Amino acid sequence: MNNCLSSSPVFRMDTKSYLVQMNGNGVYGKSSVIAKSLNGTGVQGNGVHHVSVNVCPAKAKNRRQRWEVKPSEMANNTFNPIRAIVDGMKLTPNPDKPMITLSIGDPTVFGNLPTDDAVTQAMKDAIDSQKYNGYAPSVGYVKSRQAVANYYSRPEAPLQAEDVILTSGCSQAIDLAISVLCNPGDNILVPCPGFSLYKTLAVSMGITVKLYNLLPEKSWEVDLQHLESLIDEKTSCLVVTNPSNPCGSVFSKEHLQKILKVASKHCVPILADEIYRDMVFSGCSSPSMASLVSDVPILSCGGLAKRWLVPGWRMGWILIHDRHNIFGSEIRQGLVKLSQRILGACSIVQGALESILNNTSQSFFKETISFLESNSEICFNELSTIPGLNPVMPSGAMYIMVGIEMDHFPDFKNDIDFTERMVMEQSVFCLPASAFEYKNYFRIVVTVPEEMMLEACARIREFCQRHYRPCSRDSNDLDQ
What we know:
About 35% of the residues lie in helices and about 15% in strands.
């Protein structure tokens, strides 16, 4: 093999020589090169060798002739469906009507849903303590992790600090969960319609996304037969979102058990996106998936963002449920390693976390849920009476999905065209369901003030009345 550097300790580089310090074992020390030119040749005393260095010129074919810096494959493969669709829409509102945005899943946008006083006080106390200004461990402070474990632990699904990893929001929790369970070439099962982040993360890692159907006629329950048909030997993860974004649906205990039965049968671990856990309307319950099964390992992702109304604080977590030790130490160690790529959750929020979890008033949660349920009912009742629209009443979270009978709206090609024109004519922006891999629906966020919700529904009604066309009866019907 032709190497640039020969095995001899003497090298030549033009006519200059340099001192190289070697230790007693013939190994170059830290300060090996002494930047001082010497005259003469040979070995110097005190273990200092006089060497010359010959630098081989780079072969022309290996040397770049011009600048050519390209983005990585991961960057090129990263695709956010929501951004791609919204950025391509012509969103010019009617100048005669103030804009009403019903598209953003941030409950703080309109200022009508502040967090609880106990939550802000906990943050003030954490700052004033001066204890949380430094770096936290990559998986979070033990005390903070134990606080989360205590809050969510149940006899049928016990948790300790070692079962909790704190993250920068639920989004990072999902990222870590997918990263630790999946390899390039694997596939994951994702609900349709579903939160777009799952696909954005998976595809960027070389993971295939298979969409399993949710059924609007059954309040967005999972099509279990379709789900099971998608599983193969490369399926490494089943994503279950409950309560749902974008649907606002809440699965019953019985339906969750049916989903778990499929996962158990095919030995597929579950990523449970439970960021809207406990955000359910009256008459509904939202048990965690881990509380219903013991033989299916589950990574449950959650955080403060939605229930505590502080999405910008970026505090999320992964709860590791593995009572039969199926994940074993390898998945746990993998999560720790992945968390070390970048320090995650804010140390100040971690310092406040125990107080936030223990001291937030129950009345705060009840008032928030009551408001969301009331707004959902207003929206559902108003839109249900509009010809051509079919809203599906939600049971939790902060969203409602509305079907569009496109045959009655020949002016529009699809849900994107429909919602785009609604902005132009009525200054109301709802997110087209194409952003969630679902056609001819749109999603409404129900966190807006009540009077704004009523105004938005009135404008949607006016828009639909203008463009609605009865379907013409076919010739056979006319003959009879």
